[in-house]
Amino acid sequence: MTATVVAAIGLGANLGDAALTVQRAAQSLGLLPRTRLLRCSRLYRTPAWGMQAQPDFVNAVALIDTGLDARALLDALLATEREFGRDRSVERRWGPRTLDLDLLLYGEAMIDEPGLQVPHPHLAQRAFALVPLLEIAPDAAIPGVGAARNAVSGLDLSNIQPL
């Protein structure tokens, strides 16, 4: 049997029916090859990060158990974004999007390759990812950083609203 890894995937959208898109995208993660959806957080409404003059986001985090290596998983996530109508070639960085899937954690791996950084390089600063992550994985650790609950303790959580 192939070894598997538990990975955390951040989901976000702020165009169209964002809540429905995030729910459907979470379900689609369980359809990836050699992958099983373990659980998904509830949905959260959060203000845009980076470029703030845009609609609020709907965010969630899903935990999956996957036999895909990190690069293959990232490729599958990017393909899923495209299936949901995202075209990264025409977007502005941190701009509005139909769907954003981020590989937040891949087991305890630390990967720094062109186009693939795990843990996600901004995870420890993003309450919109940490709050749903901690909901479903209260003991989550960010490799190279430490406990996710310690990272979130210094962040402003006032504008993250459960839906």
TrEMBL record:
This protein's record includes keyword Kinase: yes
UniProt keywords, alphabetically: ATP-binding, Folate biosynthesis, Kinase, Nucleotide-binding, Transferase
Family annotation (InterPro entries): Hppk (IPR000550), Hppk_sf (IPR035907)
Domain 7,8-dihydro-6-hydroxymethylpterin-pyrophosphokinase: 93-104
GO biological process, one term: tetrahydrofolate biosynthetic process
Known role: Catalyzes the transfer of pyrophosphate from adenosine triphosphate (ATP) to 6-hydroxymethyl-7,8-dihydropterin, an enzymatic step in folate biosynthesis pathway.
Family of the protein in this entry: Belongs to the HPPK family.
Designated name of the protein: 2-amino-4-hydroxy-6-hydroxymethyldihydropteridine pyrophosphokinase
Organism per entry: Pseudoxanthomonas wuyuanensis
Lineage: Bacteria, Pseudomonadati, Pseudomonadota, Gammaproteobacteria, Lysobacterales
